[in-house]
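P.,

For your records, the input lines for the assembly:
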Amino acid sequence: MADRRAADDPVRIGLLGRGTVGGAFVKLLEDRAPAVGSATAAKVEISGVLTTSEGDFEEILAGSDVIVELMGGVTTAREHVLAALRAGKPVITANKQLLAQYGAELFAAADEAGVQLRFEAAVAGVVPVIRVVQESFSAVEFNKVFGIVNGTTNFILSEMASTGASYEDVLARAQELGYAEADPTDDVNGADAAAKMAILARLAFHTAVDFEQVPFEGIESVQPDDLAYAKELGLSLKLLGVAERFENGITVRVFPCFLYPGHPLSPIEGPFNAVMVEAPEITEVTMSGPGAGGLQTAAAVLGDLVTVISGDAPVHRAENDLPILSDVESSFYLHLEVADVPGVLAQVAKMLSDSGISVKSVVQKGIGNDARLVMVVHRCPESRFMEAVEEIAGLDSLRSSPRFIRVIEEVFV
Amino acid sequence: MADRRAADDPVRIGLLGRGTVGGAFVKLLEDRAPAVGSATAAKVEISGVLTTSEGDFEEILAGSDVIVELMGGVTTAREHVLAALRAGKPVITANKQLLAQYGAELFAAADEAGVQLRFEAAVAGVVPVIRVVQESFSAVEFNKVFGIVNGTTNFILSEMASTGASYEDVLARAQELGYAEADPTDDVNGADAAAKMAILARLAFHTAVDFEQVPFEGIESVQPDDLAYAKELGLSLKLLGVAERFENGITVRVFPCFLYPGHPLSPIEGPFNAVMVEAPEITEVTMSGPGAGGLQTAAAVLGDLVTVISGDAPVHRAENDLPILSDVESSFYLHLEVADVPGVLAQVAKMLSDSGISVKSVVQKGIGNDARLVMVVHRCPESRFMEAVEEIAGLDSLRSSPRFIRVIEEVFV
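Structure tokens returned:
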């Protein structure tokens, strides 16, 4: 779309809606202005904002090059998005219900006008599943697209499984933490996930799928003892959206479902989303990340905006000239074979401690006359650890050279 | 690039190299011709093929609109790719060493000519990490990009951990299974991963990173007892590529590394790749899938080709008119509260068996005078299961309505 503007004119964004996501988008666009400028070779400015109390849609539309719809709801949003597309303006939206209910009309309007309609933020938050399905795998024939597409319910099920608490208690906790809305109906009954699956199935199978065609079940009736029994059977419970292609048609559904350990979706805990796509030529690809949050949704919108403005793929330019550092901090596993004499552990521990390196865990085992001393030490500059190992290597009681391997200490969720 | 051709002219592909990946690409392009046609609104044909025994590069270049480089090696590949870019032809390549060693020159040539240079297949096989970093997150400031970017070594480490076998024995097995090359040096010593990390770090941090600047360690000296001790400490071993941004610069390195359980990369087993990207506005996003294989690599190349031809994002059209099916097969968890009378299990089992439903596992427990009967049944048509449940619900010995939840039976590696 760069062609339509004079080279120095800024790209004018008409923003519809300035709630949580809209506000986060405005701030992110400001914070990332240099990166946006470099990726698009253009200046971007917000030329008008429509809220319930200010702004005139027709004026905003006339004065903008791109419309970003973050107002939510379907009635007014539908009218404005259609008007923008028909006026030849690309539209970016995060509105899953709009696409799930009026997709046919909106996609046809975009196609007719020859402008982009992008909506990464509508499904799986910042996890780039829309782009991957539509672009990376545009010529792939999918067998199956499925996953955890609602973070609220995944948080609730994870909490119920780990604490044994009831659905009601965990829902209340999720509301306190901001993972569930005051009215959580659409999340917990599966409607939100069904809207997302309608969109995903439509794109993956190139066929019309509307929200009304997606049967959904929620998690409201899951009992703590279902989760307890499931644990005995080695199962974990997720609310899944599943779109599958058969010889004679497709199915698109949302239901709570048990998974065996080893399934790529079974370790996804907390308010996360994860989507798997399957096809013969790609086998399976899994993508996961935080499901929502204002900032994450805004980041997905911004990614779409940069693509709309830059048109073709961004060219890589090594604009930063960052030095490459050699010494960083790491945690280490250290393996020592020592003569089983009293005091070796103390000696090694002192050497480490004198170097300012603290020990996190130790395993010691006798093997014949010798002992293996295996430990994990906390993060320290690698150069300091190497010096300490060199010193330890000089100990008479060592039977062979010390062995060490780095350890990532972070423990997720 | 569609603009440069007359509407009905096919897009001519000049293919350099026809080995495993090149052959798979030719076949996939043929198989997916309808999908490619629909995504690009163009016919695509291979107009020339260069192998060591046939074809003339200059002729092929002159007679093609796009060059697909799958010949490997760096010397001739570099000359041809540069020549193509300078001639204004977009290039798609799967050649990681070429990009890691001559990236600066190649990206500059593409930028100068204003044509696309795409290379999804060069990093993490079919896992679309290049597109996600360059496009979805083009305005994101990454803190860290890291992961398992070599499937051979991940297979070897997984096998060593699960079987206790030595590095040498597992390597031999990997070679038999086709997961390791006859000469596995570049995989096992970390050089292959280092080339991929040079490319990823360059894109993520918009800075020049060459292969020579990436220190790498391999897995050749990992001992079975390191893995055994690690298990006692709750750790799993992966060969990681890590690119990280600090206040004063970046680091890009490859090394074997222990992970705690709960880390998103710790469940990645076998010949898989997985990449995590971290930034404040996206928190963390993880992508995983098969690391290589001719077909998977060809699929990544084809995704790039469709993007190069279609230019802007593909417009969604609901061209297929697939029926939405209602009855499919599922496996189920079934929870029954029954009076603890002998024979209820037998009765329920008979009802299921008469409906052709087979039981996979059962847990039975007494609670006061009652018992809970919890089972998982194998896949059957859902309608048939619902009928059986209705019949079971009519049993006098039942204390409350039966509860059931679907189960996904597939167990992944």
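Two observations worth noting. Chain A touches chain B through 124 residues (CB under 8 Å). The longest strand of chain A covers residues 370-381.

Regards
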